[in-house]
Design goal:
Elements lengths: L1 E7 L3 E8 L9 E6 L6 H10 L7 E6 L7 E3 L6 E3 H8 L3 E6 H8 L8 E5 L9 E6 L3 E9 L2 E7 L11 H11 L16 H11 L6 H8 L5 H8 L7 H25 L4 E4 L8 H4 L3 H7 L5 H4 L4 E4 L4 H15 L1 H7 L10
């Protein structure tokens, strides 16, 4: 049996073809493309299938946004992905769609030590529930538990809950964003889409200066986020306004991660996925993130027992989709034997 596994994203989509002989770490074909270069998932899928030596029989696909009755309207991408339509067009035996953070959750227990970095050290509970919070283009979230060797993952749209300011400056940020947005979610302030909002807020306050070269680059950029992140971390000449934007981002992310940990009592740990956290390891390892994560009043002792780790594998969602798909076909014991399993709370 041959499996097409995928991670559909608002910025890029990665697809891989796997078989039961090689397991979830060794695709026999793989492609990563800018999502918006394609009018539909079918168009993208067709190109990969035409170049695959083995016919694909099953599909396991992580998609951004909620899935209902095998159908998803992708968030931050104008695609509709429908399991029945894919089966009819390509003749697959089965198509399973699930939220992209559910895909990550299925892969987390099998990540190697070098694919994780602990930024908040704690003992945790090796068999306890976990949460994934993933700031990338948007802000994804999911929960997972373990039942024997099986991973039980739960989707969430927690990135779209109301942003809750944790201090005076964040309250001012919320007031600022209310001028242009009817609903201010965490995704508005804690994602790739949200970082420019933080920058604009700090610029509006008129206190923190910006470097001329950075201001010029931002004025002509289609996507300001990478410019802000790179300028904030420039070792030779960091931009003060960009650095302040990133500090505010890490503070909000810490508070959000702590909220999620309490909501699910995720004693197995919180895992930060998405494309942004691996680029901010120095900032996340100390300072505003850690304090915001722990600052939960009387529940601070609970927070002190919950580890936080950054997922370093940039293809964790593809890996997780493959783990889930192959596990559905062959059983969880098969995945455990081919993907270097670990306990959910093993310290790294």
């Amino acid at each position: 049996m041959t499996l097409l596994a995928g991670d559909v994203g608002g910025t890029k989509t990665t697809l891989g073809v796997f078989d039961t002989a090689d397991g979830p770490r060794n695709p026999i074909a793989r492609v990563t493309v800018p999502s918006r270069e394609y009018d539909s998932f079918e168009e993208l899928c067709r190109g990969l299938l035409e170049s695959t030596p083995s016919p694909v029989t099953h599909v396991s696909l992580g998609v951004p946004g909620p899935v209902s009755d095998g159908r998803a309207q992708t968030t931050n991408l104008p695609w509709i992905i429908d399991a029945a339509a894919l089966t009819a067009e390509f003749g697959f035996r089965s198509v399973r769609l699930f939220n992209d953070l559910v895909a990550v959750a299925h892969g987390v227990p099998y990540l190697r030590g070098d694919e994780l970095q602990t930024i908040v050290h704690a003992t945790g509970d090796p068999r306890g529930p976990i949460a994934i919070v993933a700031p990338g283009t948007g802000l994804g979230q999911a929960f997972a538990t373990r039942e024997n060797d099986a991973v039980i993952a739960f989707p969430s749209e927690g990135g779209h809950v109301d942003f809750a300011p944790a201090n005076t400056r964040q309250a001012q940020l919320l007031e600022y964003l209310w001028q242009t947005h009817e609903h201010v979610s965490y995704e508005r302030v804690c994602s790739g889409l949200g970082i420019p909002n933080l920058y604009d807020f700090i610029a509006f306050q008129g206190v923190v200066p910006v470097l001329d070269r950075v201001e010029r680059a931002l004025a002509s950029a289609d996507d300001r986020t990478p410019i802000i992140v790179n300028a904030a971390q420039d070792p030779a000449d960091p931009c003060p306004r960009c650095a302040a934007s990133l500090e505010l981002f890490t503070e909000i992310l810490g508070a959000k991660a702590g909220n999620v940990a309490l909501a699910g009592l995720t004693t197995g740990g919180v895992y930060l996925g998405g494309g942004i956290p691996p680029r901010l390891l120095g900032s996340l390892g100390a300072g505003p993130f850690r304090e915001a994560f722990l600052a939960k009043g009387r529940l601070r002792p609970v927070m002190d027992s919950i580890p936080v780790r950054v997922i370093l594998n940039p293809e964790a969602a593809l890996f997780g989709a493959a783990c889930k798909g192959l596990g559905d076909l062959e059983g969880p014991d098969f995945v455990s034997g081919t993907a270097s399993p670990k306990t959910l709370s093993e310290d790294q």
